[in-house]
Amino acid sequence: VQLVESGGGLVQPGGSLRLSCTASGFTFEDYAIGWFRQVPGKEREGVSCIVESDGDTYYAGSVRGRSTISVDNAKKTVYLQIDNLKPEDTAVYFCAAAYYGPGITPDQAMLALHTQFDSWGQGTQVTVSS
What we know:
By secondary structure, this protein is mainly β. It has one helix spanning about 105-110; strands spanning about 1-5, 10, 15-25, 30-40, 45-50, 55-60, 65-70, 75-80, 90-100, 120, 125-130. The strands form 2 sheets. Strands 2, 4, 5, 6, 9, 10 and 11 form a 7-stranded mixed β-sheet that branches. The longest helix has 7 residues, at about 105-110.
């Protein structure tokens, strides 16, 4: 059971990135999948979450309105598109996944994934700078 993130890099302010989180050893069916980011010295921030069973999503206020999370089950990949990138988006981005059963909302899953997860990726660096 493994998650691998990719798609990070150096982007100018105002640019866009699409991060990918690919699963191996399991599928995302009925899972909650979340994206987190962390800057050294700061608390880990839950950025976005999707519950695969119904497609419901959660976005943190810091990215709401300029990001989109989606799932491609055929590719076993969850994407996080962030547009209008800002220097404060600079961080290592991680994905995590867990099966919580039916009825969980994406905001509940976002909180739960901080400590209760089935798999956690190694992270991909995003740097927003001119």
